[in-house]
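ping. complex inputs:
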Amino acid sequence: NAGVTQTPKFQVLKTGQSMTLQCAQDMNHEYMSWYRQDPGMGLRLIHYSVGAGITDQGEVPNGYNVSRSTTEDFPLRLLSAAPSQTSVYFCASSRANEQFFGPGTRLTVL
Amino acid sequence: DAKTTQPPSMDCAEGRAANLPCNHSTISGNEYVYWYRQIHSQGPQYIIHGLKNNETNEMASLIITEDRKSSTLILPHATLRDTAVYYCIVGRTGANSKLTFGKGITLSVRP
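pong. complex structure:
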């Protein structure tokens, strides 16, 4: 199993640009989530999904959209990038009481 | 969800046991204690979780006090590769539990 994969690993955007961070898992987990981690901070939940077609907001959803058309994929869209969205983004999927995290996408917004 | 309190950092010698404390005085009866760690800038990694009994797996042991207001994660023989940020989290059980990651405790294992 590849586990949780994320692309790209690094991305630089200009203010106002949009992009999609990709996340995929091959473990057939229903629950998936997106977090952001700012320097020296813990992870904050952006959006989550309990299954295909079902998504909900986390702690810091503003400026981000998600959709879940398949069990495997859970993309995160930045609608109009802002410097405040410079962060490391982690995707996770869950089985029972264990979350599996991807390697992260390091995003810089200029 | 209940909040947790961890010291910001600690260190231990390689080969010795690392005992990482966590306070969660407002934990409710149906909340579990979870531990994750994050090595350098990688994604967090699950370590262990428990409700009220002590738990042990191949990575660590989790000791929860009888009143459940605090716990200790024990790495029995720390190695340099255990240097990481360790997060103590309290939350409900199940894949859908939304866990809140605080700042964690930075463990430095010295040679």
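The radius of gyration of chain B is 13 Å.
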